[in-house]
Write a structure and sequence with these properties.
Keywords: Cobalt, Metal-binding. The chain has 230 residues and is α/β, with parallel strands linked by helices. The chain is 57% helix and 10% strand. Bound molecules: CO-5-methoxybenzimidazolylcobamide (B1M).
Length: 230
């Protein structure tokens, strides 16, 4: 072992989180997995590990990607390391044993292959007791419609990370309207380039800034639906 090799388990929490940001930046999958396990062993909640170590690290990657310091291959490695960390957290976040409160079909829109945020939303929704059917990335309107009908879903969740793909959400909502299906579903949208105004303009029920907001919004809408039915 080299003298200067960092032993993750010897770092205190703050140092370890900073080191994990660096490791995520460098796409070091095994180190990220180890870091996640250490924080969990130290009593961190899965949610704190997710937000403070992984999501915060990915924000740094995003800024440097935007500024041309990182390029697609490096960002892919970082995304891969992030996914490995998320895979450890997923069962823990889902471990509520709560009865299913509703069903959501979620997917990234046509032309868009970003899926980390969508996966995170799916995980958090499952953790909150929702049944989640993830239809993946690059979804044309037909795939959303088919999944919604097949799954008898309560909620449609759409994700878009590109300014060029976010307008496609309106295509999906307009198609639901044309087919007289719009009122059958709660439509929630999210993704970094969206905002509240955009959500309203395209006719979604709500824009969700992050996964925690998505969970709370979904719960609120399901409660309203149940009250209306009662
Ligand atoms: Co892409 N990319 N990317 N990328 N990428 C962005 C989005 C970009 C902002 C980077 C930048 O320039 N700063 C930029 C878009 C610019 C724009 O549109 N104006 C960009 C670009 C340009 C591109 C390419 C075009 C690059 C190229 O090829 N030249 C290309 C597009 C390919 C395509 O889709 N057709 C591309 C490719 C890639 C990679 C493949 C390398 C990789 C994706 C890997 C993967 O997802 N499997 C990648 C990544 C990782 C990013 C950044 C760095 C990080 C995205 C991410 O995962 N964030 C991103 C920069 C950034 O966003 N800062 C960037 C972490 C994630 C947890 O956050 O996805 O926002 P986010 O999700 C949040 C909320 O938004 C919300 O909750 C989540 C959790 O809190 N949310 C929802 C998201 N979806 C929701 C759905 C809901 C509710 C809430 O439904 C109910």
């Amino acid at each position: 072992m080299a003298d200067d090799e960092i032993i993750l388990s010897e770092l205190d929490d703050e140092e370890l989180v900073l080191q994990m940001h660096d490791d995520l930046y460098d796409g070091l999958k095994e180190e990220i997995e180890e870091g996640v396990r250490i924080l969990l062993d130290r009593g961190w909640t899965p949610y704190d590990v997710l937000t403070k170590a992984l999501v915060a690290g990915m924000t740094i990657v995003g800024a440097d990607f935007r500024d041309g310091i990182l390029f697609v291959p490096e960002v892919l490695l970082a995304a891969n390391a992030m996914k490995a960390g998320m895979a450890i957290l997923k069962p823990l976040l889902a471990e509520t044993g709560a009865p299913k409160v509703g069903k959501m079909v979620i997917g990234t829109v046509k032309g868009d292959i970003h899926d980390i945020g969508k996966n995170l939303v799916g995980m958090m929704m499952e953790g909150a007791g929702f049944e989640v059917v993830d239809i993946g990335i690059n979804n044309p309107v037909e795939k959303y419609l088919e999944a919604l009908e097949r799954e008898q879903a309560d909620i449609l969740g759409m994700s878009a990370l590109l300014t060029t793909t976010m307008p496609y959400m309106k295509v999906v909502i307009d198609t639901l309207k044309e087919k007289g299906m719009r009122d059958d579903y709660i439509v929630l949208v999210g993704g970094a380039p969206l905002n509240e105004e955009f959500g309203k303009a395209i006719g979604a029920d709500a824009y969700c800034r992050d996964a925690a907001v998505a969970v709370q919004t979904a719960k609120d809408f399901i409660a309203r639906k149940h009250n209306a039915m009662a």
